[in-house]
Amino acid sequence: MRIADMDWRMVEDWVRHDDRCVLPLGSTEQHAGLSLATDAILAERIATEAAEPLNIPVFPVVPFGLAPYFSGFPGTVTLRVATFAALVRDVLDSLKGSGFRRIMIVNGHGGNQPVGAIAQEWMMDHPDARVRVHDWWRGPLTLAAVQRIDPVAGHAGWMENYPWTRLADRPPEEGGKAVVDVDRMRTLPPFEVRLLLDDGSYGGRLQRDDSEMLELWDVAVQETRSLLEEW
Length: 231
Known about the structure:
- This protein is globular.
- The protein has a single domain, classed as Creatininase (Rossmann fold), CATH 3.40.50.
- It is mainly α.
- The strands form two sheets. It has a three-stranded parallel beta sheet with strand order 1-2-3, with helices on both faces. A two-stranded antiparallel sheet has the order 4-5.
- Helix 4 (115-125) links the parallel strand 2 and strand 3.
- It is built from eight helices and five strands; from the N terminus they run αβααβαβαβααβα.
């Protein structure tokens, strides 16, 4: 149940009998030939589909995260770590103020990893609330499904290439490229990262059959839903 489809009275009624909600986190950054909003699209869609049968409210995705290494690519937006931490804390404060005490963060961007520490720190100040951070693509079942399909799965490659992250006015990208040295990439300034990555992907195949992608998607949605159900 999307918050966009609710009014404040519906939220007030909801928290009288259930204190769970979902907050998706994404990023706006280069994804080679895929949408700049890929991480935000995937996080929000996973969260919404997972929570829908449970009627748990899902807040709009936070579309900006930590992506300084991609700042040499036009269209990328990155926050400072301090800004990101303050944003997450302010949102959690607001959710708790509305009556939510169990908040699942569905994260769609690897660069947002500090959110785990931010959530732990926030719970020190709010011992009556709980926050669970779920990197949807790193869930054990989802990761196992990725490995079965193709263990070479990196940024802007096949694993993020769904019908809903492709651009309608661009033809599908075929083939792939050699895997880049990501450890070396992390030591470089943004303009050198752009030179290293070229198109922006980390390497491997750019696209796989949609039947495989939908199978993977179903695993990710069900795994996320199970975490909400057992909470």
